[in-house]
Amino acid sequence: MVLPQADGLSLNSIPSFVKEHHGSHKTYVPVSTLIEWTSSRYSSHVYVYDLATAVGFGKLTEKWALENKGIHVIPSQSRSGAGLSIAGRLSGGSSDDTSLKSILTTYTTPIGLSQMAHALSILPVPTTSGRLVLQVPNVSVVGEALTLSPSLGHISASLASLPESILVILSSTPQEALNIASLSYRISDYHVIHIFDHHSSTRENHHVVVPSENADDKVTFEDALKDEGYGFFDYAGDNDAETVVVLLNSPLAGAALKLATQFPGLGVVSVRVLKPWSADALLAILPKTVRHVHVLDEVLAETFGGSLYPEVFSSFWGAEERIQPDIHEHRVAPARLRQLLSHPSTLTELLAGFAPVQPKVSPTLDEALVKKLLFFSSPASHLSSLPLLITKTFTNSRTIETRHLIDFDAYSKPGGIAADRVTIAPHSDVHNPVALPILLPITDESLGYSDCLVILDQSLLKTHSVLEHVKAKKPVLILTSWTPEEILSNLPKQSLELLLSRSSRVYIVDPKAVASSLSGSNPSNALDLEVVVAYLGFSRLYFGSGASQTLLKTLAQNVFGDSVGGVALEELVSKSWDSLAEVPIPGEGDSLFTNASDSNELKGFEFNSITPPENAPAQSVQASVESWHIAAKHLLFPEAYAPIAQNPEKAEEYSQQAELRPEVPERTFLVTCTVNRRLTPLEYDRNVFHLEFDTSNTGLKYAIGEALGVHGWNDDEDVLDFCRWYGVDPNQIITLPLAEGGGKVMHSRTVFQALQQQIDIFGKPPKSFYAALAEHSTSREDRMALLFIAAPEGAGTFKKLSETETVTFADVLQRFKSARPDIAKLCELVGDIKPRHYSIASAQDAVGDRVDLLVVTVDWVLPSGSPRYGQCTRYLAGLKVGQKVTVSIKPSVMKLPPSHEQPIIMAGLGTGAAPFRAFMQYRAWLSAQGTPVGPLLYYFGSRHRSEEYLYGEEIEAYITDGVITHAGLAFSRDGKKKVYIQHKMREDAESLVKMLAKDRGVFYLCGPTWPVPDVFEALVGALVEYQGKTVEEAGEYLESLKEEERYVLEVY
Ligand SMILES: Cc1cc2nc3c(=O)[nH]c(=O)nc-3n(C[C@H](O)[C@H](O)[C@H](O)COP(=O)(O)OP(=O)(O)OC[C@H]3O[C@@H](n4cnc5c(N)ncnc54)[C@H](O)[C@@H]3O)c2cc1C
């Protein structure tokens, strides 16, 4: 069962998707996807800033740009002074973009906006063919817990110095965000900054009407706004209001507008267009009766002024026909905003404090008929698709409206937690929906706002305060393998008390057990069946006393059809019905209560990540430091623990020696080093060396051009050093899971072996490592620093650590001394050393049981001045003759053409010579067998002939023998003038063209990436000169050769 996900939409599917849904039709794709699509469509270039992608906005555009040449993305980094190149591009007059009638778009966040302040202040006047649109997803990290917030505090700082030519417009609901994003490309008279609510609205799956295609004719901003039915401001409340509250268009404003209608004498104004500020429009929308104005300004801290108060204040100057009201400023810092949004009663209290008269009935944001559902799950679990599935059940309904929003807490549990909010309501109130996090807050010490709570990960009951999120007397469904007794004995006392005090009804169902009882001989369907069982369990509770097996069957039939995985729906419904059980909650006198633990500090859910945590570890896989007898079991009964044969039918003469590198999923071979010879002089700064390995009796076979995967080891001394300062015994036995073993297959080794051969402890840590390590830190400073580095706001620090200081996992542990996971956990957090690939420099037909490599050591100097070495090249450089090495084979693009007589043209720098040596050996071998072979051109470049003419003697011999028909050798530093391979290729332009265009030759480039454009240009030049093509035609021709596998690049 595949659920349609926004991320899965390819560029090609979007236009038809939108075509299908525009006009009166509706879609359930998150609006952020549609904003990206609109922006990609109407912009000549999209500048995607890293801060935007860090909050989940821009990745799709980058993906689409790879699929479609018409979309141009410029990945950009956020830093002070950002955006100058955009300003330059728009000012450039004669740039390509101007001729393309360009609208440039930038994706950035409010913080990114402030970094662009200077660039924005020097933008040229907007024209129909030169404008900038900034799409700004508003969500920012606040507070010590690094929670994501919809605070508009950052905006104020960015707006102070904007020129008149920039329009600043805010949207808060999904539909409005889409309409305004689209409108931004229809107008001609302003650059646009569109700030939309990415904390929830644009990430929601919500019915929206897709706007029709933008016409080519440009209109003024005011006309476009009117066409859409929007004004500069929105007003709600009493038409004769005495008191008015003004705030920026945001989730808070949406909720305030809704409450305003319930207070006599009160009105609320939401500001949609912040710049150009229209005092006239504000005065026009306000009742003449207004005597008091309260401005709620969102700020970063209460000591900072906001952007709204000065505008509102100045609007009343000179407004003669009205009485001057008193104007009050209220600064709303993120902590206060959080309180207002997550405890709806505090917002009501705030408005009540302003209102001249108190209402008779307590104002509320709730609609009687809206059902609010909340789901907690592990993001990596397949059952986590349940909420979206429930939402999609009603997608086509004309009478029911569903909304869905997913938030992640990446830090409070390894692998993270997902919280899905779903609302189901009659089709009404579509235009101004209150943001889901306000309708259904997830907050500590919650009063319970959901009508049904579903817990998809039973372990959360022991660690997190999930049960408090359900309303009194409402059902809780737990998908669990525990019995009712086990559920109760796993609950701490505070949870039992809560359930009792709220008279909650707790139900359980075990989807796994039901699915496996039904999947019979076809266990591959079990996962699908589990989802259906969960769906049925939920539906039964949702419909309560109205539920019947017939109803559930009808409902499920619309979603799943008549059967799932070969099991009839009827049977599934009946089994699921029977297996749902109620958990009897004991009274306070019960022994369960007395025995329940009360020391357990349950954690709350914090929304701190928009995407699921990276590399969420699979649930069941856990490393452990084992007692000796468990380790002994692994050693004594290896067949029970060793990796499952990948392909038993392909049993080979030389089988996989799993016990050597059991954690490596691919087929490995243990080869023996027979030669390790340095090719460059000792005093030369680059160590390029030649390796030969004996492959006899290993079964290793390779084709010309393939690469060897080398599973290198870490340095012994470094490992022992690490063990010493980490305080772990290197001889301790450790049991580790196999990546491919589904968590069931483990293997044992000493800590020293694990760190030397498997665990990438001296490798480069990803962001997720910092987040995971924070969990293990006992000092608050360390924890905050680690979480900061992992958060979007820490992008700069992470970059510095990663790119400038090139820290390793071990370095991070050195820095954050309070974070000391035990060694088994650490191995799990760090992960395995990845094999490095090396082009094979020999032809097996020519050399027999041997494989050769050509390697250059990688090293660099740290800012501290100490040297650092590449993991694998250091290992290879230190290999002694006789030493065994674990290798695997990697297929490659470097394939010889089908006919031996087709010309081959090879160009390489440095170690790029490796596969070409194999090509030459093979052609020489073919010739020796009497097989006719075609021409072979060899271009090779390095700095000095005397030091880096790699395999020089062999090459000269091949030239003499005619295996190489022509060589273009470029030693860049030997002469006064620098000569590179592209210069040599230009000298041979005519014959290169003949070989490529007439004789179906194949061109190969291998080695470092930097000569790629020069070589391409040299070939384009040759085709222009000798084939009469234009530059574009020549470029397209070379592109077509790539398709034919006649222009082959292997660069690294
Ligand atoms: C198909 C293919 C064929 C190849 N053929 C050859 C060949 O024939 N000969 C050859 O010599 N190479 C070849 N390579 C390159 C080779 O695979 C390795 O990338 C190279 O040898 C470096 O590996 P290493 O383990 O020594 O360095 P690594 O440890 O992987 O380091 C590589 C780079 O990563 C960065 N880095 C490392 N650690 C950190 C850190 N902690 N923080 C931040 N940055 C870090 C550094 O910039 C460093 O330069 C080939 C690559 C491919 C993909």
What are the SSEs and their pairings?
Blueprint: H1 13-21, E1 26-27, H2 31-42, E2 45-49, H3 50-54, H4 59-67, E3 73-76, H5 84-91, H6 96-99, E4 102-107, H7 110-115, H8 117-121, E5 130-138, E6 140-142, E7 147-149, H9 153-159, E8 166-170, H10 174-183, E9 191-197, E10 205-206, E11 208-209, H11 221-227, E12 233-237, E13 243-248, H12 251-260, E14 266-271, E15 273-275, H13 279-285, E16 292-298, H14 308-315, E17 326-332, H15 334-342, H16 344-354, E18 371-377, H17 386-393, E19 400-409, E20 417-426, H18 436-439, E21 452-455, H19 460-463, E22 475-479, H20 484-490, H21 493-501, E23 505-509, H22 511-519, H23 526-543, H24 549-560, E24 563-564, E25 567-568, H25 569-579, E26 581-583, H26 591-595, E27 624-625, H27 628-636, H28 638-641, E28 669-678, E29 688-694, E30 707-710, H29 716-726, E31 733-737, E32 746-750, H30 751-758, H31 767-774, H32 780-790, H33 795-804, H34 809-815, H35 823-830, E33 836-839, H36 844-847, E34 850-856, E35 859-861, E36 867-869, H37 871-877, E37 884-890, E38 904-909, H38 913-928, E39 936-942, H39 945-948, H40 952-961, E40 966-971, ...
Parallel strand pairs: 2-3, 2-4, 4-5, 5-9, 8-9, 13-14, 13-16, 16-17, 18-21, 21-22, 22-23, 38-39, 38-41, 39-40, 41-42
Antiparallel strand pairs: 1-11, 6-7, 8-15, 10-19, 12-14, 18-20, 19-20, 23-26, 24-25, 27-31, 28-29, 28-37, 29-34, 30-33, 30-37, 31-32, 35-36
Helix pairs in contact: 2-4, 2-10, 13-14, 15-16, 22-23, 23-24, 23-25, 24-25, 29-30, 31-32, 41-43, 42-43, 43-44
This protein binds flavin-adenine dinucleotide.
Residues 707, 764, 802, 806-808, 836-839, 854-856, 858, 860, 870-873, 911, 914, 1050, 1052 line the site of flavin-adenine dinucleotide (FAD).
Organism: Sistotremastrum niveocremeum HHB9708
Function: This enzyme catalyzes the 6-electron reduction of sulfite to sulfide. This is one of several activities required for the biosynthesis of L-cysteine from sulfate.
Pathway: Sulfur metabolism; hydrogen sulfide biosynthesis; hydrogen sulfide from sulfite (NADPH route): step 1/1
